[in-house]
# Entry
Amino acid sequence: MPVVDEASAQALPTPPVNNLSNNVQAPSGALDPQLGPTPVPWDGAIRVTILVMGLDYRDWSEGVDVPRTDTMILFTVDPLTKTAGMLSIPRDLWVTIPGMENNRINTAYRWGEIYKLPDGPTLAMKTVEGVIGVPIQYYALLDFNSFVRFIDEMGGLDMHIKEEIVVDPIGPGNTVRLEPGVQALDGATVLAYARQRKDGDGDFSRSARQQEVIMAVRDQVLTLNMMPTLVQKAPALYQEISQGIRTNLTLDQVIKLAWLALQIKDENIKKGVFDPHQDVQYASVDGPDGRQDVLIPNPDQIRLLRDEIFATGGAVGPAAVAGDPTQLMVTEAARVMIRNGTATVGLAAKTGELLRAQNLNIVGEENADGLYGQTVIIDYTGKPYTINFLIQQLNIKDSVQVRNRFDPNAQVDIEIILGQDWAAQQP
# Structure
């Protein structure tokens, strides 16, 4: 149960049903109602990470006070290397929700809204940060009407259906059988295709279809050169669907990020879906809502999946290749603490000198809590370029030597515990 007293819980108001309390900020600068916003490239130099959430239709349609999230996809865009990625997060993942007992990850938004922790999107972002181990700057929460309206505004979506599938658009008696091949679908059918979870591996195959939809939208915008038209329509369209959108991005930022995303080549967009046989394991647990069938995360495997999506060089091990790895590391400005876990006196100080010469921000050197056979790198705040750089510099051979302990309040970003393997390499 939540860590709040019963009297306080009863007194807390709940948001209106089917109407997201909109945090959309007005676009900066003057907007010509005829032309729309001027497309300005994203001027940021730091990796952008956005948590996109869709509401649970069952809760939404039944008028539940605050719906759970039906979909969670973590998007990342790196303006420096022109790379991007998306990672789908299973709704039944059993996780620690800050300030609460363990529960399914799809309840984080709901509890954050009801118990003001401080709100739904913030609690959802903090929960996902704790699981994946990367900082999240932005969020976007969408309801079904907004998604359908956007697809219809594009004139529908051409989807390549890989195998026959039966979908159920919102509304009774609307079952549609989709045959293999390219199909022109309206917004309601695209939504039904993305939400179908009664085939294959359930949520896992559904996650893959949702990513197919996202890539199809991108391809159609590029192929038909639709971006200028969408930008021109953006103010009116955004105003129309804004009741179903809640985000901390401004309209200007949305447009800039969209233009940036369209500049990224397909081969530089990495897509990740949890593996039901490696990244999680099925279990039945006792939770706040009774006995539940859930997915228990495997932290080490999830870290490897995370690094494939968020690190330029792929899985843990190779240095960043889509750009100068030293410059990418310097840009992250990670705070690094070095601890000596060997009997070699002065090893931390010597290593600090070596790494400072490589422009690393070494904030301290001291002894570790004991002796270590292998060097260990601990990542507290999600700095993939610096982690990859250190893997090369310290000659790390085994992925188990890199550990994820995400803590946004940590005093340092990365901790290095030097082991005997590193001492043996020194003259």
